[in-house]
Protein backbone atom coordinates (compact mmCIF):
# COMPACT_ATOMS: atom_id res chain seq x y z
CA UNK A 1 0.00 0.00 0.00
CA UNK A 2 1.31 3.44 -0.97
CA UNK A 3 0.16 6.01 1.60
CA UNK A 4 0.24 9.63 0.47
CA UNK A 5 -0.66 12.67 2.56
CA UNK A 6 -1.79 15.86 0.85
CA UNK A 7 -2.37 19.41 2.04
CA UNK A 8 -3.00 22.88 0.64
CA UNK A 9 -1.28 25.68 2.51
CA UNK A 10 -1.22 29.50 2.60
CA UNK A 11 -3.55 31.79 0.65
CA UNK A 12 -5.85 29.85 -1.64
CA UNK A 13 -5.90 30.30 -5.41
CA UNK A 14 -7.50 28.82 -8.48
CA UNK A 15 -6.52 25.28 -9.59
CA UNK A 16 -5.68 23.87 -6.14
CA UNK A 17 -8.36 21.24 -6.64
CA UNK A 18 -7.26 20.65 -10.23
CA UNK A 19 -3.67 20.05 -9.06
CA UNK A 20 -4.74 17.58 -6.36
CA UNK A 21 -6.83 15.84 -8.99
CA UNK A 22 -3.76 15.60 -11.26
CA UNK A 23 -1.77 13.91 -8.50
CA UNK A 24 -4.58 11.60 -7.40
CA UNK A 25 -5.70 10.46 -10.85
CA UNK A 26 -2.13 9.60 -11.83
CA UNK A 27 -1.54 7.70 -8.59
CA UNK A 28 -4.81 5.76 -8.87
CA UNK A 29 -3.95 4.86 -12.47
CA UNK A 30 -0.66 3.27 -11.37
CA UNK A 31 -0.34 -0.43 -10.56
CA UNK A 32 0.01 0.41 -6.84
CA UNK A 33 -2.68 0.24 -4.22
CA UNK A 34 -2.94 3.86 -3.10
CA UNK A 35 -4.47 5.56 -0.07
CA UNK A 36 -4.57 9.35 0.01
CA UNK A 37 -5.02 11.23 3.28
CA UNK A 38 -6.15 14.84 2.95
CA UNK A 39 -5.05 17.09 5.81
CA UNK A 40 -7.55 19.83 6.63
CA UNK A 41 -6.63 23.51 6.65
CA UNK A 42 -3.02 23.22 5.59
CA UNK A 43 -0.23 22.35 8.02
CA UNK A 44 -2.75 22.76 10.85
CA UNK A 45 -4.31 19.44 9.89
CA UNK A 46 -0.92 17.75 9.98
CA UNK A 47 -0.10 19.31 13.36
CA UNK A 48 -3.41 18.52 15.02
CA UNK A 49 -4.27 15.25 13.25
CA UNK A 50 -7.23 16.73 11.41
CA UNK A 51 -7.61 14.77 8.20
CA UNK A 52 -9.83 12.59 6.12
CA UNK A 53 -9.04 9.51 4.09
CA UNK A 54 -9.97 10.38 0.53
CA UNK A 55 -11.83 8.26 -1.99
CA UNK A 56 -11.12 8.31 -5.73
CA UNK A 57 -14.55 9.91 -6.22
CA UNK A 58 -13.42 12.90 -4.11
CA UNK A 59 -11.12 13.84 -6.97
CA UNK A 60 -13.82 13.71 -9.64
CA UNK A 61 -15.65 16.81 -10.85
CA UNK A 62 -13.15 19.22 -9.27
CA UNK A 63 -11.07 20.23 -12.29
CA UNK A 64 -13.04 23.45 -12.65
CA UNK A 65 -13.82 24.33 -9.04
CA UNK A 66 -12.12 27.21 -7.24
CA UNK A 67 -10.82 27.23 -3.66
CA UNK A 68 -9.57 24.04 -2.03
CA UNK A 69 -11.68 21.10 -0.96
CA UNK A 70 -9.27 20.52 1.96
CA UNK A 71 -9.34 24.08 3.29
CA UNK A 72 -6.19 26.04 3.97
CA UNK A 73 -4.57 28.27 6.58
CA UNK A 74 -1.53 30.44 7.00
CA UNK A 75 1.05 28.89 9.32
CA UNK A 76 3.98 31.33 9.08
CA UNK A 77 7.33 29.63 8.54
CA UNK A 78 9.05 31.97 10.98
CA UNK A 79 6.79 30.66 13.79
CA UNK A 80 7.25 26.96 12.94
CA UNK A 81 9.95 26.52 15.55
CA UNK A 82 7.90 28.33 18.21
CA UNK A 83 5.60 26.16 20.32
CA UNK A 84 1.82 26.67 19.90
CA UNK A 85 -0.35 28.29 22.61
CA UNK A 86 -0.38 24.99 24.55
CA UNK A 87 3.37 24.51 24.33
CA UNK A 88 3.18 21.92 21.54
CA UNK A 89 6.23 21.57 19.29
CA UNK A 90 4.68 22.03 15.83
CA UNK A 91 7.44 20.37 13.83
CA UNK A 92 7.54 17.33 16.12
CA UNK A 93 3.73 17.13 15.99
CA UNK A 94 3.75 17.08 12.18
CA UNK A 95 6.44 14.40 12.12
CA UNK A 96 4.50 12.36 14.63
CA UNK A 97 1.25 12.51 12.58
CA UNK A 98 3.17 11.51 9.44
CA UNK A 99 4.71 8.52 11.23
CA UNK A 100 1.51 7.51 13.00
CA UNK A 101 -0.33 7.34 9.66
CA UNK A 102 2.62 5.43 8.15
CA UNK A 103 2.79 7.84 5.23
CA UNK A 104 5.22 7.20 2.39
CA UNK A 105 5.09 10.79 1.24
CA UNK A 106 3.55 14.20 1.92
CA UNK A 107 2.44 16.41 -0.99
CA UNK A 108 2.40 20.14 -0.23
CA UNK A 109 0.55 22.53 -2.51
CA UNK A 110 1.83 25.93 -1.51
CA UNK A 111 3.74 29.11 -2.22
CA UNK A 112 6.94 30.47 -0.73
CA UNK A 113 6.34 30.14 2.99
CA UNK A 114 4.65 26.76 2.62
CA UNK A 115 7.50 25.38 0.51
CA UNK A 116 10.01 26.60 3.10
CA UNK A 117 8.16 24.49 5.64
CA UNK A 118 8.06 21.62 3.15
CA UNK A 119 11.84 21.89 2.87
CA UNK A 120 12.16 21.94 6.66
CA UNK A 121 10.09 18.75 6.93
CA UNK A 122 12.20 17.19 4.20
CA UNK A 123 15.36 18.09 6.13
CA UNK A 124 13.73 16.53 9.19
CA UNK A 125 13.55 13.25 7.31
CA UNK A 126 10.02 13.20 5.83
CA UNK A 127 9.46 12.37 2.17
CA UNK A 128 8.01 15.55 0.70
CA UNK A 129 6.95 16.74 -2.76
CA UNK A 130 6.07 20.40 -3.37
CA UNK A 131 3.67 21.75 -5.97
CA UNK A 132 4.01 25.43 -6.95
CA UNK A 133 0.96 27.46 -5.99
CA UNK A 134 0.27 31.21 -5.88
CA UNK A 135 -1.39 33.99 -7.79
CA UNK A 136 1.78 36.03 -7.16
CA UNK A 137 4.01 33.86 -9.42
CA UNK A 138 6.92 34.65 -7.09
CA UNK A 139 8.03 31.11 -6.25
CA UNK A 140 11.72 30.81 -7.04
CA UNK A 141 12.69 28.09 -9.51
CA UNK A 142 9.50 27.87 -11.57
CA UNK A 143 8.60 29.98 -14.58
CA UNK A 144 4.94 29.74 -13.64
CA UNK A 145 2.86 28.90 -10.60
CA UNK A 146 -0.68 27.59 -10.91
CA UNK A 147 -3.29 30.23 -10.04
CA UNK A 148 -1.31 33.05 -11.60
CA UNK A 149 -2.91 33.03 -15.05
CA UNK A 150 -6.44 32.86 -13.62
CA UNK A 151 -5.65 35.83 -11.38
CA UNK A 152 -4.27 37.70 -14.42
CA UNK A 153 -7.67 37.13 -16.08
CA UNK A 154 -9.53 38.63 -13.13
CA UNK A 155 -7.21 41.60 -12.63
CA UNK A 156 -7.32 42.27 -16.39
CA UNK A 157 -11.09 42.12 -16.33
CA UNK A 158 -11.09 44.73 -13.56
CA UNK A 159 -8.93 47.01 -15.72
CA UNK A 160 -11.17 46.34 -18.76
CA UNK A 161 -14.25 47.35 -16.77
CA UNK A 162 -12.54 50.52 -15.57
CA UNK A 163 -11.63 51.34 -19.18
CA UNK A 164 -15.21 51.88 -20.26
CA UNK A 165 -16.05 54.11 -17.34
CA UNK A 166 -12.71 55.91 -17.63
CA UNK A 167 -13.43 56.70 -21.26
CA UNK A 168 -16.65 58.41 -20.20
CA UNK A 169 -15.03 60.73 -17.63
CA UNK A 170 -11.90 62.85 -17.59
CA UNK A 171 -10.35 61.09 -14.64
CA UNK A 172 -7.38 59.14 -13.47
CA UNK A 173 -8.18 55.59 -12.38
CA UNK A 174 -6.01 53.40 -10.22
CA UNK A 175 -6.56 49.63 -10.13
CA UNK A 176 -4.66 48.04 -7.26
CA UNK A 177 -3.50 44.53 -8.03
CA UNK A 178 -2.37 41.84 -5.57
CA UNK A 179 1.06 40.19 -5.77
CA UNK A 180 2.55 40.70 -2.31
CA UNK A 181 6.18 41.87 -2.73
CA UNK A 182 6.45 41.28 -6.48
CA UNK A 183 4.97 42.81 -9.62
CA UNK A 184 4.22 39.84 -11.91
CA UNK A 185 0.44 40.00 -11.60
CA UNK A 186 0.31 43.77 -12.02
CA UNK A 187 2.68 43.74 -14.96
CA UNK A 188 0.79 41.05 -16.90
CA UNK A 189 -2.67 42.42 -16.06
CA UNK A 190 -1.46 45.93 -16.81
CA UNK A 191 -0.13 44.86 -20.20
CA UNK A 192 -3.22 42.82 -21.01
CA UNK A 193 -5.60 45.55 -19.86
CA UNK A 194 -3.77 48.37 -21.64
CA UNK A 195 -2.82 50.31 -18.50
CA UNK A 196 -0.96 53.54 -19.22
CA UNK A 197 1.17 53.45 -16.09
CA UNK A 198 2.30 50.32 -14.24
CA UNK A 199 3.82 50.55 -10.78
CA UNK A 200 5.57 47.49 -9.36
CA UNK A 201 7.75 46.99 -6.27
CA UNK A 202 10.81 46.12 -8.36
CA UNK A 203 10.80 49.60 -9.97
CA UNK A 204 10.37 52.28 -7.28
CA UNK A 205 8.42 55.26 -8.61
CA UNK A 206 8.79 59.03 -8.49
CA UNK A 207 5.38 60.66 -8.07
CA UNK A 208 6.50 63.62 -10.21
CA UNK A 209 7.24 61.27 -13.13
CA UNK A 210 3.76 59.77 -12.80
CA UNK A 211 2.26 63.27 -12.83
CA UNK A 212 4.35 64.07 -15.94
CA UNK A 213 3.04 60.93 -17.69
CA UNK A 214 -0.56 61.95 -16.91
CA UNK A 215 0.05 65.51 -18.17
CA UNK A 216 1.63 64.16 -21.33
CA UNK A 217 -1.46 62.05 -22.01
CA UNK A 218 -3.65 65.12 -21.45
CA UNK A 219 -1.49 67.11 -23.87
CA UNK A 220 -1.98 64.32 -26.43
CA UNK A 221 -5.74 64.77 -26.07
CA UNK A 222 -6.36 61.63 -24.00
CA UNK A 223 -9.25 62.03 -21.60
CA UNK A 224 -8.19 59.51 -19.01
CA UNK A 225 -5.24 57.62 -17.57
CA UNK A 226 -5.30 54.15 -16.04
CA UNK A 227 -2.69 53.06 -13.53
CA UNK A 228 -2.18 49.40 -12.60
CA UNK A 229 -0.57 49.61 -9.18
CA UNK A 230 0.87 46.61 -7.35
CA UNK A 231 -0.13 46.40 -3.70
CA UNK A 232 3.60 46.34 -2.95
CA UNK A 233 4.47 49.37 -5.14
CA UNK A 234 6.87 51.76 -3.43
CA UNK A 235 8.19 55.27 -4.06
CA UNK A 236 11.91 55.93 -4.49
CA UNK A 237 11.74 57.95 -1.30
CA UNK A 238 10.20 55.10 0.72
CA UNK A 239 12.51 52.53 -0.84
CA UNK A 240 15.42 54.46 0.70
CA UNK A 241 13.94 54.14 4.22
CA UNK A 242 14.89 51.39 6.64
CA UNK A 243 12.24 48.72 7.31
CA UNK A 244 11.59 50.28 10.71
CA UNK A 245 11.21 53.82 9.34
CA UNK A 246 8.87 52.63 6.59
CA UNK A 247 6.70 50.72 9.05
CA UNK A 248 6.47 53.82 11.26
CA UNK A 249 5.50 56.03 8.31
CA UNK A 250 2.85 53.58 7.07
CA UNK A 251 1.37 53.20 10.57
CA UNK A 252 1.11 56.97 10.90
CA UNK A 253 -0.78 57.22 7.59
CA UNK A 254 -2.86 54.04 7.98
CA UNK A 255 -6.15 55.85 8.68
CA UNK A 256 -5.83 58.11 5.64
CA UNK A 257 -4.37 55.52 3.30
CA UNK A 258 -5.61 51.93 3.66
CA UNK A 259 -3.15 50.94 0.92
CA UNK A 260 -0.49 52.46 -1.35
CA UNK A 261 -2.99 53.31 -4.13
CA UNK A 262 -4.87 55.73 -1.90
CA UNK A 263 -1.64 57.54 -1.04
CA UNK A 264 -0.66 57.74 -4.71
CA UNK A 265 -4.18 58.89 -5.63
CA UNK A 266 -4.19 61.62 -3.00
CA UNK A 267 -0.80 63.02 -3.96
CA UNK A 268 -1.58 62.81 -7.68
CA UNK A 269 -4.81 64.78 -7.37
CA UNK A 270 -2.86 67.48 -5.52
CA UNK A 271 -0.07 67.46 -8.12
CA UNK A 272 -2.23 67.38 -11.26
CA UNK A 273 -5.59 68.75 -10.12
CA UNK A 274 -7.39 65.79 -11.76
CA UNK A 275 -9.96 63.60 -10.10
CA UNK A 276 -8.58 60.21 -9.09
CA UNK A 277 -10.57 57.06 -8.30
CA UNK A 278 -9.15 53.91 -6.71
CA UNK A 279 -10.47 50.38 -7.32
CA UNK A 280 -9.23 47.41 -5.32
CA UNK A 281 -10.42 44.04 -6.67
CA UNK A 282 -8.69 42.37 -3.68
CA UNK A 283 -9.49 38.74 -3.01
CA UNK A 284 -11.69 38.40 -6.10
CA UNK A 285 -8.31 37.83 -7.80
CA UNK A 286 -7.96 34.50 -6.00
CA UNK A 287 -11.56 33.47 -6.55
CA UNK A 288 -13.67 31.58 -9.03
CA UNK A 289 -12.84 28.80 -11.45
CA UNK A 290 -9.33 28.23 -12.79
CA UNK A 291 -8.96 29.27 -16.42
CA UNK A 292 -8.10 26.66 -19.07
CA UNK A 293 -4.35 27.46 -18.90
CA UNK A 294 -4.30 26.79 -15.16
CA UNK A 295 -6.39 23.62 -15.49
CA UNK A 296 -3.93 22.21 -17.98
CA UNK A 297 -0.87 23.39 -16.01
CA UNK A 298 -2.30 22.04 -12.74
CA UNK A 299 -2.97 18.66 -14.32
CA UNK A 300 0.57 18.49 -15.71
CA UNK A 301 2.21 19.57 -12.44
CA UNK A 302 0.08 17.12 -10.46
CA UNK A 303 0.86 14.25 -12.81
CA UNK A 304 4.59 14.97 -12.56
CA UNK A 305 4.29 15.07 -8.76
CA UNK A 306 2.69 11.62 -8.84
CA UNK A 307 5.49 10.33 -11.06
CA UNK A 308 8.07 11.54 -8.52
CA UNK A 309 6.19 9.73 -5.74
CA UNK A 310 6.00 6.51 -7.73
CA UNK A 311 9.73 6.78 -8.48
CA UNK A 312 10.47 7.55 -4.80
CA UNK A 313 12.16 10.82 -5.78
CA UNK A 314 11.51 12.95 -2.73
CA UNK A 315 12.55 16.39 -1.51
CA UNK A 316 11.57 17.84 -4.89
CA UNK A 317 9.55 20.86 -6.01
CA UNK A 318 7.65 20.41 -9.27
CA UNK A 319 8.29 23.37 -11.59
CA UNK A 320 7.66 24.64 -15.10
CA UNK A 321 10.78 25.52 -17.09
CA UNK A 322 9.90 27.01 -20.44
CA UNK A 323 7.26 24.62 -21.73
CA UNK A 324 8.49 21.55 -19.82
CA UNK A 325 7.35 20.37 -16.41
CA UNK A 326 10.32 19.21 -14.37
CA UNK A 327 11.53 19.34 -10.76
CA UNK A 328 14.21 20.91 -8.58
CA UNK A 329 15.21 20.27 -5.00
CA UNK A 330 13.04 21.96 -2.36
CA UNK A 331 16.18 23.47 -0.85
CA UNK A 332 17.08 25.22 -4.12
CA UNK A 333 13.88 27.24 -3.98
CA UNK A 334 13.42 27.68 -0.22
CA UNK A 335 13.78 31.21 1.10
CA UNK A 336 14.17 32.94 -2.28
CA UNK A 337 11.65 35.05 -4.16
CA UNK A 338 11.33 35.34 -7.92
CA UNK A 339 11.21 39.04 -8.75
CA UNK A 340 10.49 40.85 -12.00
CA UNK A 341 13.83 41.90 -13.48
CA UNK A 342 13.60 45.63 -14.28
CA UNK A 343 16.10 45.04 -17.11
CA UNK A 344 14.13 42.13 -18.62
CA UNK A 345 12.74 42.18 -22.14
CA UNK A 346 9.26 42.04 -20.57
CA UNK A 347 9.74 45.44 -18.93
CA UNK A 348 11.52 46.78 -21.99
CA UNK A 349 8.65 45.75 -24.30
CA UNK A 350 6.16 47.44 -21.99
CA UNK A 351 8.27 50.61 -22.13
CA UNK A 352 8.46 50.35 -25.94
CA UNK A 353 4.68 50.58 -26.27
CA UNK A 354 4.74 53.70 -24.13
CA UNK A 355 3.87 52.33 -20.71
CA UNK A 356 5.37 54.42 -17.91
CA UNK A 357 6.75 52.72 -14.81
CA UNK A 358 6.82 56.08 -13.06
CA UNK A 359 10.58 56.01 -12.74
CA UNK A 360 11.83 58.10 -15.66
O1 LIG B 1 -0.04 35.32 -1.76
C1 LIG B 1 -1.30 35.52 -2.29
C2 LIG B 1 -1.90 36.79 -1.77
O2 LIG B 1 -3.19 36.95 -2.33
C3 LIG B 1 -1.06 38.04 -2.02
O3 LIG B 1 -1.17 38.51 -3.34
C4 LIG B 1 -1.61 38.97 -0.98
O4 LIG B 1 -0.64 39.93 -0.61
C5 LIG B 1 -1.91 38.05 0.16
O5 LIG B 1 -2.04 36.75 -0.38
C6 LIG B 1 -3.16 38.39 0.92
O6 LIG B 1 -3.21 37.55 2.02
P1 LIG B 1 -4.49 37.27 2.90
O7 LIG B 1 -5.44 36.44 2.11
O8 LIG B 1 -3.95 36.55 4.08
O9 LIG B 1 -5.09 38.59 3.23
Cα distance, first to last residue?
61 Å
Q: Return the structural class.
A: alpha/beta
The amount of helix comes to 40-55%
Question: Strand-residue fraction?
Answer: 15-25%
- Number of domain modules: 2
Order of helices and strands: EHEHEHEHEHEHEHEHHHEHEEHH
Give the CATH topology of the largest domain.
Rossmann fold
- Specify the CATH class of the largest domain: Alpha Beta
Spatial order of strands in the largest sheet: 3-2-1-4-5-10-11
CATH structural architecture of the largest domain: 3-Layer(aba) Sandwich
Mean pLDDT: 97
Subcellular location: Cytoplasm
Binding site for substrate: 134-136, 171, 178-180, 231, 277, 283-286
Binding site for ATP: 11, 74-75, 111-114
InterPro entries: ATP_PFK, ATP_PFK_prok-type, Phosphofructokinase_CS, Phosphofructokinase_dom, Phosphofructokinase_III, PKF_sf
